[in-house]
Amino acid sequence: MTGMPPQQQVSAQRLALPDALRGFAIVSIMLLHNIEHFDLYFTPQGWPSWLSALDKGVWNTLFFLFGGKSYAIFALLFGLTFQLQDSRRAARGEDFRARFAWRMVLLLGFGTINSMFYEGDVLSMYAVLGLALIPVCRLGDRSVFLIALALTLQPFAWFELLRAWPDPALKLPDPASWAYFSRAESYLKGASVLDAWWGNFTNGKVGVLRWSWENGRIFQIPALFMFGMLAGRRNLFALEPAARRFWARTLLLAALAFVPLYFGKDAAWFTADGLRRPASTILIAWKNLAFMLVLVSAFALLYRPALDFFAPLGRMSLTSYMMQSVAGTVIYHGFGLGMYQYTGATLSLLIGIGLALAQRWFSAWWLRRHSQGPLEAIWHRFTWGKSFRMA
Fold first, then answer.
1. How confident is the model at residue 140 (pLDDT cuts 50, 70, 90)?
2. pLDDT exceeding 70 applies to what percent of the chain?
3. What is the dihedral of CA 254, 258, 259, 265, to 10 degrees?
């Protein structure tokens, strides 16, 4: 780094922690997707009791650590990236907002392709919800924070809770997303790749969108984008003492908030279905947010060059995310190797670790030869209309 001009050194230092954290999120997403067989839920029968117990422990541990948290880290850093790009263009006297909107159109294209392989794709959702940054990015910090906080409170779930209060014993219908996921099993297990792609793109995508609405993510994702943007404004991901003090306080407060939320049993103390379901949506969203902040704060405080192990994956996050969708579905789904039939959570975790290591090796190898990942270079080219160059 000593050979860099001073401005490039500052930029590289400012991105070191976010790149490593983004890579960490990519790996944790990879591990979760593997034990889920990339949304093809299946438990092999006939395992010895010790392996079934181990599978259950692996499943519960990974979801405790990363379920609902990894995507949230990714969303937080999405907002940070927007702020870095916006401020860089503003320093040149340019308005980034129109270009960002076009950039989201391109991301929607990547997400559409990824959705064919993996119905749980978040890229297309980020592309649409990312547009929420455009109307708020010129507001002051206080206004942005209050808007993000309001979204984090899960307003629609509160509306449902208050609506159900006069008649809490009313039995609610099953979540609409369940029917879509039930239909997905037939084509995910089938041998036709075209059926799988079409099913993921149609039935699967609608199911994921409904599930995201039912679980409050449609509100939480733009809130996280805004919080990430504010973090960029305050330079909280810089390797500086003031930022470390912020993350130390955040770690303490998030841990204190997580404990009662965790033992709240996801509103199981509500016996009435009409009250329990919206209350559960609120508490689970808050619980995941609190533990996500624990993970981010701990990572920021513990960050050392050794954690740069994750940075190549973070620098190639678009390529890494889409690669894992292709590789994972080929491994587990019926049109590929069909390994969903033979792998419980433990074996799938081992496969996921192997894939993460291979992906990390590929990312490091690629970045020694090019300045960007292959899909990042394509995205950059079409965003800015520049000639195509990998180096």
1. very high
2. 95
3. 170
